[in-house]
Write a structure and sequence with these properties.
The complex is a heterodimer. In chain A, strands 2-1-5-3-4 form a 5-stranded mixed beta sheet. In chain A, α2 (96-103) crosses α3, α2 crosses α5 and α15 packs antiparallel against α16 (434-443). Chain A contains 17 helices and 20 strands. Chain A is α+β, with helices and mostly antiparallel strands. Chain B is an alpha+beta fold. The longest helix of chain B is centred in the C-terminal third of the chain and has 28 residues, at 532-559. Chain B is globular. The chains are: A alpha+beta, B alpha+beta.
Chain lengths: 490, 786
């Protein structure tokens, strides 16, 4: 067992053993290291001013992703290399993205700039070339700028990424690989501080189960994209933290022709490609999930276990048909995903029990799938309404239907009456769809809140089902942005 | 444009082309920004023993305070002291003018989140946790949250005010067509990326030095002196840069600086306030939201005969800057259009919400959006193209007097901009293509709109139109530049450095930009009203010019030529056949006891405004622009995309075109956010702001900006003698975004042409879908939250 958090900083291994388990990476950088280039804009992972690059070893090479350091706990950096905005200019020579930001007038007040630079830094260092405008917009979706209107920033990114990649950072990357290799080699459970107040990161499911049996009151931490806010905003007195990030078995992805199984700690970024392969709408859903920073930290298991009434992924997975695998002191169990959500922020999870994996039923021949996420702002926003639809067709006739919505009830929820009403309908007989569309009003009693009113949600839900049916029937002129090309099973 | 022969492009000494002015130099701090090396207040290394401050906030929006038990707050580990109103040695008043903003509420609470006390602790974490432990007892009353609540209670922060011209009722009655309506316009959170922050350090005998993220260091100084009961001279306020301001740090940075100063005063330890983002949303004011009730009479061409409007402005709980803000709404109710007879009334309503304040445009945007909406309503009623209705009303010679009596002298500029943009944007062709698309497409609809901007430049509070600068030349020839303007990202510091480098004929690197300080330039106006460059650029030029004249006299004496024959360029000074480096002349001046420091002062000429008589010339000049926006709307969900934007904007002769284009693009996108996704939702029962952080309040991101975004500067020298014939650029571009709102309405209108589109701002997807459902004859019930 190890008592210090160990992570890479500029080619060396840093060891930290005396911080509060709640300490965020941002506070450690600013207050601990006195490196103040990284800014706090919102302390909730939504503005990106605190963005740093976090590198993890993947097959011997360190691969960097942007993360929001304001809601990332320092302990989550264990085994990773931390690169902040001060670390990328070498001997007074700016990194190419920094140079381009100056040349293109990409900063005005400058407060968001360090975060933007770090998002562009990871795009530059890790992005597939050529880098197009969509990739730049995606890289910037988690970085708010209030001054420039983004045009010069996007131009800076396109310009910097248009030329051959500068190799300067490779020396850092290699040094980091050595440092991280050393940390990874220990394979030990991490347990910092004492039984009353700790940050723990077991290295195996056995250790995890034992630890949770000893501390069923501990907060289980996955990506911290929500738990981080419990700390920074709700000021919850969280003293015991069990982070799942060192359990390799929870990071596995398994794919068969029929199913896709995602370990609980698979990040949204890592799940993106596998989900997009099931249906392009799922790929677009993942692209719009939070921001690139949130997708790098946030996990599939965390998104489910956290039980948000909106949680963008669960409605889509419920519509597809997914099973949830849990483990705890009483052993393992499996249940349909929709049965996990009991009520508002209430889930079928015992103290000490944890989500192991979600097993998703892939689309088969003659299946059609659609999902739509409706938000105030297209990118980096939480759904007002999220609708997902899986139909099994026999010719032009609907043989089976699964529908799930988010934002329409206290939990992600299926629409049994509308599902039943769809069975037997003819895709070419639009007038006959009305009973199924009307049934949604019985399936859901949505609420009004700051995202949308109940009546808006009800109309949109109905129209999304209509849109799904019309598209599957063959109408291609219903979307602002065309449905992405993909290998749909229909 | 022939740059060499334009007299505006001649160097200060004449003849030579400009070396620095008109150059697209980067922001003065650009290289520091990108390396994280530009320090904001929270980045400055704290003096030893600095205490961290958290604000204790009211859990109710309106009521009487029955009890405030702070024992648990004081007992929290790490807490050093708790500040309440009882600790204030001077006045419990942080208001800019009216005396109605207490630093800490005492008997009554007036909005949800209002400051009740402050905690000083060894760490920020301890201060925040301790603040949450207060036991507050309030006898709660139902708060006024909406315009309607305030109207029902007849509660206002300032008296009603109105002005007009001609007989409006006969004009309305006599017009061939009449319409009336009501437009709701939402507010806007500034969302400066750097939240409110201040660091106060105590000195001797009550002296206090405060670093404040403020647009108005002089007011911070005054308010601290008032709160502490000290003369102004005991207080120095300094600001090197803000991480954005947008008006939100004009009057509302003072409270946090004053709390830090009070803490420093009482504990003799430095104190720092840095508001958490959610607290910043709850504690600081926003753009005013409005309900505009209007009536218009017009002819078959859409030309207005009479227009009357009552602007019901929701000011929040106190006056703050609402007098100037709502007055500016009145000054911009005409936008670019002539009203033969007009009446503009305003109500400045009190609600139990945070006090609304300055926000880029300062009331102007609301007036202008309202009249653009009226133009669309006339177009829908007459069946004419909305652009043709706008042309029918556009100011032109003979029809060029504003409702407040100032003549629009540049009607030719206004018309040229609109006509040029109509051509370069391909408006007519695209209008036809859109009509064809909308005919084919059942649920997706496109819309387009071209709207003009005319924005008055000058503070309407006359005494604010002054500025000072302080320039030193040191004996090595380096220059210390200081002025009353503050840098919030708008590039003011660099523009003024360009002016000073030009004046001395030296490399810009020799001009050292220094932090704005009340100790160097006193009695300054806020950096606001787009006036920063106009005012401070002139003051700095005057200061530099006076030093230069003395240096020239010394060079003339030394080389035996007339002073007029001495010229400054390329870091050298030329006198007859002789020349020497600028630094050597500076050294020579010191040896010959020539004074190399100067305070420059400038006040705007020819402006006047008599508010009681509603007469005068409040604006030195107008800045003009126009934008054409196209959108695509999904009428099943209300979602939309802005697909193309063309902008043509008048900045006079630009001092720095890169910075000016940055202001235009940034202002447009900020305005677009105001009118689209940025929605402030207050709980109707409790008055609590429900959209209190970026997770719930959505400002534009990169993908909201159209790839096809064409911005051009209109070549046009300012007719007034402004600094290098430039025009102010900070605020006017906000209102270019009115074209986005009108384009969305245009797209919805395609569902049932001829019907009015009941679209309010912001045009969120829900608002757009509501408008669609209304045109479909299936309106949704009114939205209620909470």
């Amino acid at each position: 067992m190890r008592e210090a958090i160990r992570f890479g900083r500029n080619g060396t291994v840093r060891e930290v053993r005396d911080v509060h388990p709640r300490t965020t990476l941002l506070d450690w950088l600013r207050l601990g290291e006195r490196r103040t280039g990284t800014k706090e804009g919102c302390a909730e992972g939504d503005c990106g001013a605190c963005t740093v690059a976090l590198g993890r070893l993947v097959d011997g090479r360190v691969v960097y992703e942007p993360v929001n350091s304001c809601i990332l706990l320092l302990g989550q950096c264990d085994g990773a290399d931390v690169v902040a905005v001060e670390d990328i200019a070498a001997d007074g020579a700016l990194h190419p993205v920094q140079e381009a930001m100056v040349t293109h007038h990409g900063s005005q007040c400058g407060f968001c700039t360090p975060g933007i630079v770090m998002s562009l830094f990871t795009l530059y260092e890790e992005g597939e070339r050529p880098v197009g405008r969509d990739a730049v917009n995606d890289a910037l979706a988690g970085n708010l700028c209030r001054c420039t209107g983004y045009r010069p920033i996007v131009d800076a990114a396109l310009d910097a990424c248009a030329t051959a990649k500068d190799r300067r950072f490779e020396a850092h990357r290699e040094a980091a690989a050595c440092a991280l290799g050393e940390i990874a080699a220990d394979g030990a459970d991490l347990f910092m501080r004492d039984e009353g107040r700790f940050f723990a990161a077991p290295a195996s499911e056995e250790s995890l189960a034992a630890l949770l049996a000893r501390h069923p009151d501990a907060t289980i931490l996955a990506g911290a994209t929500d738990v981080g806010l419990w700390i920074t905003k709700s000021l919850m007195e969280i003293e015991k933290i069990v982070w799942l990030g060192r359990v390799a078995s929870l990071r596995e992805t398994r794919s068969t022709p029929e199913t896709l199984t995602l370990g609980a700690m698979v990040s949204h970024a890592d799940a993106h490609a596998a989900l997009a392969a099931i249906d392009p709408d799922l790929g677009e859903l993942m692209r719009r999930f939070g921001s690139i920073q949130v997708r790098a930290s946030g996990t599939v298991g965390g998104n489910i276990a956290n039980g948000s009434p909106i949680g963008d992924l669960p409605p889509a997975l419920i519509a597809l048909g997914a099973k949830l695998h849990l483990a705890g002191a009483k052993g393992t169990r499996t249940l349909p995903l929709e049965d996990f959500f009991l009520g508002y922020r209430q889930q079928d999870r015992e103290p000490g029990e944890y989500v192991r994996a979600v097993e998703i039923d892939k689309l088969r021949r003659h299946d059609a799938f659609r999902c739509f996420k409706v938000t105030k702002r297209l990118d980096e926003d939480i759904s007002a309404v999220m609708g997902a639809f899986r139909l099994h067709l026999e010719g032009r006739r609907i043989a089976r239907a699964r529908i799930a919505f988010g934002g329409m009830a206290a939990t992600p929820k299926r629409a049994p009456l509308a599902e039943a009403a769809l069975v037997g309908l003819d895709l070419d007989d639009e007038l006959a769809w009305a009973p199924a569309l009307d049934a949604l009003a019985q399936d859901y009693r949505p609420m009004s809140d700051h995202r949308a009113s109940a009546e808006y949600r009800a109309v949109v839900a109905r129209n999304l089902l209509f849109k799904a049916l019309a598209e599957i029937a063959g109408d291609a002129g219903l979307r602002i942005a065309p449905r992405p090309a993909g290998l749909a099973a229909e | 444009m022939n740059i060499r022969h334009d007299p505006d492009d001649a160097s200060p000494d004449g003849g030579e082309p400009l070396r620095h002015v008109r150059k697209p130099l980067p922001h003065d701090s650009a290289r520091r920004h990108v390396q994280g090396a530009a320090d904001y207040i929270d980045d400055v290394r704290e003096p030893q023993g600095t205490l961290q401050v958290a604000i204790g906030m009211s859990p109710k929006a309106r009521g009487t305070i029955r009890g405030l038990d702070l024992a648990a707050v004081r007992a929290h580990p790490g807490v050093v002291r708790v500040l309440t109103a009882a600790d204030i040695p001077g006045a419990n008043d942080v208001s800019p003018a009216m005396g109605d903003d207490p630093m800490f509420a005492t008997d009554r609470v007036s909005f949800h989140g209002q400051a009740l006390f402050a905690v000083l602790a060894e760490t920020r974490d301890a201060a925040r946790r301790a603040a949450a432990k207060a036991v507050v007892e309030i006898a709660e009353e139902r708060p006024s949250v909406t315009v309607e609540d305030a109207l029902a209670r007849e509660e206002a922060v300032l008296p009603d005010y109105g002005f007009g011209r001609g007989e409006v009722e006969p004009a309305l009655v006599g017009a061939p067509h009449r319409l009336e309506g009501s437009l709701r316009i939402g507010g806007q959170e500034h969302f400066y990326l750097e939240g409110q922050a201040a660091l106060a350090t105590p000195g001797e005998e009550g002296d206090v030095h405060v670093l404040s993220s403020t647009q108005h260091p002089t007011e911070v100084q005054h308010v601290i002196a008032r709160v502490l009961g000290l003369p102004d001279a005991f207080v120095t306020c300094e600001v090197r840069r803000m991480g954005g301001g947008f008006g939100g740090k004009e009057s509302q940075a003072t409270q946090w600086a004053a709390i830090a100063a009070l803490g420093a005063h009482l504990t003799k330890r430095p104190c720092k306030v840095r508001l958490d983002r959610d607290d910043d949303f709850a504690l600081t004011g926003k753009r005013h939201d409005f309900r505009c009730d209007w009536r218009v009479g017009f002819d078959g061409e859409g030309a207005i005969a009479g227009f009357a409007v009552t602007h019901n402005a929701r000011c929040g709980y106190s006056a703050d800057l609402s007098q100037g803000v709502v007055d500016r709404t009145m000054f911009h109710t005409d936008n670019s259009y002539y009203f033969p007879a007009v009446r503009i009334d305003t109500r400045r309503l009190l609600t139990n919400t945070v006090s609304n304040t300055a926000f880029r445009g300062f009331g102007g945007p609301q007036g202008m959006l309202m009249i653009e909406h009226v133009m669309d309503r006339i177009a829908w009623a007459t069946g004419r193209d909305p652009l043709d209705v706008r042309y029918a009303n556009l100011y032109r010679p003979g029809r060029d007097v504003t409702p407040y009596g100032q003549t629009v002298e540049e009607t030719d500029t206004l018309r040229a901009i609109v006509e040029t943009l109509e051509r370069t944007s391909g408006y007519r062709t695209r209008r036809a293509a859109i009509a064809a698309f909308n005919g084919r497409s059942k649920t997706l609809k496109k819309g387009i709109s071209l709207t003009p901007v005319k924005f008055g430049i000058s503070f309407t509070l006359m005494h604010l139109n002054q500025a000072g600068a302080l320039v030193h030349v040191y004996q090595d020839g380096s220059v210390h530049l200081n002025h009353g303007g503050t840098e919030m990202g708008q590039g003011l510091y660099q523009k003024i450095a360009q002016v000073v480098a030009e004046e001395f004929g030296i490399a810009i690197e020799r001009v050292r930009i220094t932090a704005t300080s009340t100790g160097k330039v006193p009695n300054t106006a806020p950096t606001a009203a787009s006036s920063g460059t106009d005012l401070n650029g002139m003051a700095a030029r005057i200061a530099a010019g006076k030093i230069k004249a003395r240096m020239a006299a010394r060079a003339a004496a030394r080389f035996g030529v007339a002073a007029e024959e001495v010229t400054f360029r390329d870091d050298r000074v030329f006198a007859g056949n002789e020349s020497l480096p600028f630094g050597e002349l500076a050294k020579d001046c010191v040896l010959h006891r020539v004074h190399l420091s100067e305070a420059g002062f400038y006040k705007t000429p020819t402006i006047s405004w008599d508010r009681a008589a509603a007469k005068g010339r409040p604006f030195l000049y107008f800045a003009f622009g126009a934008a054409c926006s196209e959108v695509l709307v999904d009428t099943l969900t209300g979602e939309y995309k802005v697909t193309r934007v063309d902008i043509l904007h008048d900045v006079g002769r630009s001092i720095n075109p890169a910075i000016d284009i940055g202001q235009i693009e940034g202002g447009f996108v900020q305005g677009m956010g105001w009118l689209t996704t940025e929605e402030l939702v207050y709980d109707a029962e409790t008055g609590r702001l429900r959209t209190h952080a970026p997770s719930t309040y959505k400002i534009p991101v990169a993908s909201d900006v159209p790839e096809d975004f064409r911005v051009a500067l209109f070549p046009n020298a300012n007719r007034e003698e402004t600094i290098y014939r430039s025009k102010a650029v900070g605020e006017p571009p906000i209102m270019l975004a009115n074209s986005v709102f009108c384009a969305l309405a245009d797209a919805v209108h395609a569902l049932d042409p001829g019907k009015p589109v009941p679209l309010d701002a912001p045009a969120t997807p829900e608002a757009v879908l509501r408008a669609c459902q209304a045109l479909r004859g299936r309106p949704l019930p009114e939205r209620a939250i909470g």
